[in-house]
TrEMBL record:
This is PepSY domain-containing protein. The chain crosses the membrane at residues 12-33, 205-229, 250-272, 447-471. The keyword Protein biosynthesis does not apply. The keyword Transmembrane applies. Keywords: Membrane, Transmembrane, Transmembrane helix. It comes from the Bacteria.
Length: 484
């Protein structure tokens, strides 16, 4: 049994030792420079005020032009070529010119360039030298699945001091991502290596999923066998515990015993990051839950534009369904908005955010076993935060299932059942150390993450050296073996 553990650990570690070393090193980089993403604040800062003085078709007319496709949400925003409705349907987003109801896809690179330049200027960036860089489905920074509804993407280089690049959706004409030279450079030695994320592999999600799942499973087995062997290879001599090894093996043995708990939990939790429903729930709604939380509202009621009760510079109007009712969200700034609900042919103001009464009215339809909506407080064991500063997130507990609703947008952030809650601790907490006690002290959390990853990196070096020596010894032995 011990011999089998030794051989399994030895050869898996020889094969995967360099990957262990890279994972720990890149984990430190990722903590400081995460994978490029556009924040809601950045997106909203690039929006222009709506020109509601121009005659526009009503939202219901825009929806009718799509035929029978069901809508989840729709937004009205101002582009350089006029006001546009962006309608979210299952699996894709569709843009329609609000003045003509013509398709508003962005196929013209010059239009994409004008959109990017205008958004950059509103964000205070230097766009004087902006130029079209490329049009494509995938590159290193747009491989995540969330960009599927926007492909192909126009890449616009601002050619500013920071090397900023914007990505404009060919489907909606929105800037959906921005990157800088600093982010790109550090992510090549951070997330790209850590996630095994080269474009050629990651663009095929299924192939990437299988590849990384098996690699991380093999790494988990190597960690588990090492954790088992560590104590077993100790011996008691003169009332003292000592190692059976010498030289680099000795360093590897003692370092492994010291780092064992962190290395084991970090590698196994890293494998769980690739679970994707294999062992744990995915947090997706069932069809019946979706029917209750979203519902089928009467979109044909949106017959007027501009909506009543709006004043000032509105940068975006959003209509969304929640609990079978229509809500209107008029946004002037990231934290300045007004939500109204369609009630008896009129819009009744709700406030800046959805109120507990709105959440509870929907929860009542989920079943009689649901409790009242409660706000997720700072320091909660299951933290959820809205994209809008100061907006609460409400939790509805219905037996085993917990639903988290963003009061700023009416969006369901996640459904947590017992499986998903266990996953939160076994993967997220153990891998990113987002324990509430550490989240409350960011500097301490940073020190702990960097310190533990540095220990893991040093420990991995000892394993790589041992593996190299083993391979070198086998190579020398093979060359010395006489020919038969």
């Amino acid at each position: 049994m011990i011999r089998a553990l030794i051989l399994t650990h030895r050869w898996l570690s020889i094969l995967l030792g360099p990957l262990f070393m890279l994972w720990f090193a890149t984990g430190i980089v990722m903590h400081f420079v995460p994978f490029p993403a556009q924040t809601e604040g950045e997106r909203f800062a690039g929006l222009a005020p709506l020109d509601l003085a121009v005659p526009l078709h009503a939202p219901a007319e825009a929806l009718a032009s799509l035929g029978s496709q069901p809508a989840r949400r729709m937004r009205l925003m101002q582009r350089v070529d006029g006001a546009v409705y962006v309608i979210a349907t299952p699996g894709r987003e569709v843009a329609i010119h609000a003045d003509s109801l013509a398709a508003a896809d962005v196929t013209d690179p010059d239009l994409a360039l004008a959109i990017a330049r205008a958004a950059a200027q509103r964000r205070g960036l230097d766009a004087a030298g902006a130029a079209i860089a490329a049009l494509g489905d995938y590159d290193q920074w747009t491989v995540p699945n969330r960009f599927d509804a926007h492909r192909p993407l126009h890449r616009i280089a601002l050619n500013d001091a920071d090397g900023t690049e914007f990505y404009v959706s060919s489907r909606t004409g929105e800037v959906v991502l921005d990157t800088t030279r600093f982010e790109r450079g550090w992510n090549y030695v951070g997330s790209v290596v850590h996630w095994i994320y080269p474009t050629v592999l990651r663009r095929d999600w299924a192939a990437w999923n299988v590849t990384v799942w098996w690699l991380s499973l093999a790494a988990a087995i190597a960690a588990v066998t090492g954790a088992l062997l560590g104590p077993l290879r100790l011996r008691l001599r003169k009332a003292r515990l000592s190692s059976r090894y010498r030289s680099w093996h000795l360093w590897h043995h003692w370092a492994g015993l010291i780092c064992m708990q962190f290395v084991l939990t970090w590698i196994v939790s890293g494998w769980l990051s690739m679970d994707h429903g294999r062992l744990f729930a995915t947090g997706q709604l069932t069809a019946s839950e979706d029917a209750v939380l979203i519902g089928v509202p009467d979109w044909s009621a949106l017959t007027t534009i501009p909506p009543t009760g709006l004043s000032g510079d509105v940068r975006e109007i959003e209509w969304f369904a929640f609990g079978g009712r229509l809500y209107q969200r008029a946004r002037r700034a990231l934290g300045q908005q007004q939500i109204s609900v369609r009630d008896r042919a009129t819009w009744r103001p709700v406030g800046r955010f959805l109120q507990p009464a709105d959440i509870n009215a929907t929860a009542d339809h989920l079943g009689g076993h649901c409790g009242r909506a409660t706000e997720v407080e700072a320091g909660d064991d299951y933290p959820f935060v809205s994209d809008v500063p100061g907006a609460p997130v409400y939790r509805i507990v219905c037996g085993d299932a917990w639903y988290h609703v963003d009061a700023a947008s009416g969006a369901l952030l996640e459904k947590l059942d017992s499986s998903r809650r266990a996953y939160r601790w076994l993967y997220q907490a153990l891998h990113t150390l987002d324990f509430p006690s550490l989240l409350a002290h960011p500097t301490l959390r940073t020190l702990v993450i960097v310190g533990l990853c540095a220990c893991g990196f040093a420990f991995s070096i000892t394993g790589v050296v041992i593996g190299w020596r083993r391979l070198r010894f086998l190579g020398i032995a093979a060359r010395r073996k006489p020919a038969s």
